[in-house]
Design a protein that fits this description.
The chain is built from 4 helices and 2 strands; from the N terminus they run H-E-E-H-H-H. By secondary structure, it is of the alpha+beta class. It starts with a helix and ends in a 13-residue tail after the last helix.
């Protein structure tokens, strides 16, 4: 089983840094290439560019929580939620539900 995970192409988990503006603030975000691919898909599904999608998400987090303590971790978790929504298998009681 571990070979399935250990044998993946290293380019998939290579860090990629993208420079962008989040609500007018210039910043850079460093994530694994696989997460950028998922975020690009999420943005396309939402009908916007990835920077616009991330800016919108960042604004919504600020509205709901007043701050973002670790935006890159939030992005990784958002990707996991997105992948879970794509999964057609119903959640079992033991799985953590996305809120």
């Amino acid at each position: 089983m571990c070979q399935m995970f250990a044998g993946q192409n290293p380019a998939r988990y290579e860090y990629v840094t993208r420079r962008l503006r989040l609500n007018g603030q210039s910043t850079s975000i460093r994530l694994e290439r696989a997460f950028w691919g998922i975020l690009d898909q999420m943005a396309e599904k939402d009908g916007c560019t990835t920077p616009a999608f991330l800016s919108k998400l960042h604004s919504e987090v600020l509205e709901q929580h007043g701050e973002t303590t670790n935006f890159t971790s939030l992005l990784r978790c958002a990707c996991m939620i997105h992948l879970g929504e794509l999964d057609q298998v119903p959640q079992s009681p033991g799985r953590i539900a996305a809120e």
